[in-house]
Fold each of these.
Amino acid sequence: MSDRSAIEWTDATWNPVTGCTKVSPGCAHCYAETFAERFRGVPGHPYEQGFDLRFWPERLAIPLLWDKPRRVFVNSMSDLFHEAIPDEYIRRVFDVMAAASQHQFQVLTKRHERLGQLASNLPWPENVWMGVSIENDRWVERADFLRRVPASVRFVSAEPLLGPLPHLSLDGLDWLIAGGESGPGRRPAQAEWFRDLRDRCHAAGVAFFFKQWGGRFPKASGRELDGEIWSEYPDPRARLLVPETALPGLIGTVDRLLPEVDPSFVA
């Protein structure tokens, strides 16, 4: 967790949950798991439990204490829609995002079915962006579930891209991030896969962000695609705002959480 991040498409990370389990081929060389498992068994370390799922309620209020507006990647070290995270805890995370309206929150999941199940019971303020990860054509159905979510920005993270996405429809999407895999055992991507996505995004009016080619290290091969840096961002759309009936609950969330926060996270 940090109020600044090296991830190119965000400014900060916020992890009210850490740890996860694998669900599809894109998880095979998970950077978060590799990082967390280095510290398994280290007494007192935040990842003493490795990449096992862990809740951090004392971190819930942290974005409320960040005055400077920023893009915040939610659960960079987990998946907010993991099946072991209670519905009520997910709702608390969404209540904080709605209350911290100075920020833009970027939520990314591979659990598209659970997202679809819970979406109608969650607040969707304009500052919450919702995305799904799609690594190959087998998983383009995740975007079908995403299109049913009334988020102001719907986005796809095609990273690590493990194959072309000929059956990915861009209808109803606002942003696409693409990138190759990095780290030991990486599976190289082909330039044509990225060019195809870029060209289709531009034809459909979807913002395109090329994050990296991948390599032994994330930045090893740079970010240029055909001699250019592609860092486009979407314009949020007011598909559905938080209903007024939800506002008293949000105020209660702020009052309840602020006393719990660890002051070392304030920035």
Amino acid sequence: MLAQITNKTRVAYLSMEIAFHEKIPTYSGGLGVLAGDAMLSAADLELPIVAVTLASREGYFQQTLDGDGRQQETPERWNIADYATPLNAKVCVQLEGEDVWVGAWLYLLKGHMNGCIPILLLDTNLAENTDQNKTLTDHLYGGDQRYRLKQEAILGIGGERMLRALGFSLMRYHMMKASIQKNGSYFNSHRMMRRYVCEAYL
């Protein structure tokens, strides 16, 4: 399956959230819906794109109101194995002096016609990681600023490393919403600059 999607040069599309299935809560709102619509259109047009996002096993959150009208937030859990296929690749990102290992799942987004877009879901729920680091890709935009910053590094740095580890040939990187507060675009840009500057002087 992997050989069939790495046999062409693609554009890498990185986004913290992508709404690609109504039962998979890997988005929080408009940004994710926009990203999902873009990927569905790309599939319809059979454009050479590979999307990268986080697994978000706990979703964003499910909102309910208690008897007093106060908002209650609970995780929106989903079973990733019911929808995606685990890939045999792991990459490492160093965060605060710790090695954090990142795996990936493959979801194939089929368009309304014959097109199909591969979506990689990055996942730190691996045996190699500490209990704390296993949860880094669980909650979309969850936790404190440190947790969010680590998520952005996993997407931006880990995503680029995962694409290369899987053998993807890439012509461009598209980073959805270039904001350090809402995406890992900064880290991907920094990683790309370091990579190409080093190659230029080899």
Amino acid sequence: MKRRAVTIAVLLALLVLLGAAANTGPVLAADRALFLFVQHHLRVAWLDAVFLHLTLLGDALLILTLLVWAALFVRRPFLGDAIVALLVTAAAVALAKHLFAHERPPALVEGLRVIGPSLTKFSFPSGHTTTAVAVAWVLSQRFPAAAMPLLTLASLVAFSRVYNGVHFPADVLAGALLGSAIALAVGAARPALDRLWAHLDRSQPRGRALDALLLALIGLLLTWQAFKTKMVPDSWRWPLLVVGVASCLMAYHRARPLLRRQLR
């Protein structure tokens, strides 16, 4: 436990140092040079389409959707870890972005062509990278055989943020540091999460109620994201709506026996 705490402290210290140095001197020059190298030398047409879609695997709502649906069909203890990781990540990223207040590449690089939605909020750290890395590490602890594919996907999400022109490399590195620290913290809390989740087994009414609640929440959020935000490409809007409606229908299916029992 002590070693884990020291590792978390070191990762967070590196994050703070990187945040302080990323806008000054040689770190700034190296960060910009690497970003421009990716933009000018690694972009090709077919990869544009790949990373336009692959980057969404770092979207917290999409990850939550995939995990909740997966938990309906496989053993479910991993879901509690992942939900806690997503919640902590959302709070930590929002706090860090406002503390460091780094501008995104489109505001600093003239003539930059952004792939996908052009974001305007602060850049440091990358939220998609933090989310992908945190969830990949958390799931790897539950499913060690899947560690390599999960971490590879997280790495591709991280690279896509630079490739798509919405983050500098320092933002992505910071996201990886923060995501790793969050995963370690969630891992330390896993015994407590397991005890909590044992009371929410899907064979019990409270477990079915949780399923219905999560599915209904996802359905509403997906429907909202499909048409009311600029966070996703236009080609994703109708698929998100379909999955949102399906989630709401599944929520009703899970809740119906409970409702009947209450009405008797």
Amino acid sequence: MGHDFQFERGKSFGEWLHTQMLEAVTFEDAPWAIDRIRRVESRLQGNRATISRLTVEIPWLEEVTAFTAPGRYIYFSRRLYELCATDEQVAFVVGHEIAHHDLGHVALFHGWADKIARLPGATLFALFFHGLERLVYGPQKECDADRHGLDLCVSADYEGRRCLELFDILEQRALYIGDLDMVYGPDVESDDELDENASWTTKAQIWAWQKKRGYLPIRDRRQMLRKHLEVKHPDRLPAAIQPTASPSDDAAGPLGNSGAIEGPSPIS
């Protein structure tokens, strides 16, 4: 399951990791928290066989993050979980992590298992693993997981625009701790460095920034996903912002195309 593999004494890597986490970190068990996470994970995976579904755990980690690994578990830090006010925000985080499984990204960790096993302590391991995700996946895979995760949310009848309100929360927190770079990236004036019409210098700057941080800046990431919604799910947008034909278009002719094309410790 989930690109898992045998690790030691016949135990799979995913189960070994889960055991290590349980021994060193408290997991949330309050009914309100568990009810919500089970509701969201079930809705996102409603069309999957029970044996193929992933389970979300909420470890009490101070870092605002979420991550996954080979196996059947997703880890959604309690600090991030408490910041998410709606099911839609939770769904986007979980959808992003499911996407890493659907897209085969977690299989890339197979070669790191021995190094991970030698780390002293599950908390340090969790933080290292989160950093390792960014190193192994890279910016493109994180963007792919963002888009696929948003598609999963829309397919489960979550309102896409409300899912993206997660980035408002991440932005507020980044500004609060003074991480302007994570919000704005290399160009404070632009939220659209990935636009095909951006200058070559802008594209070079954002490429270097992504390689350093592992993600797009928060505002660019949100803008990329807004455009993805407009292109792939125009019928799911509120009527007031659905792409429409230009007023100059002939009424009998085809509609004009709406040209379009993706952080604090970000979701990995």
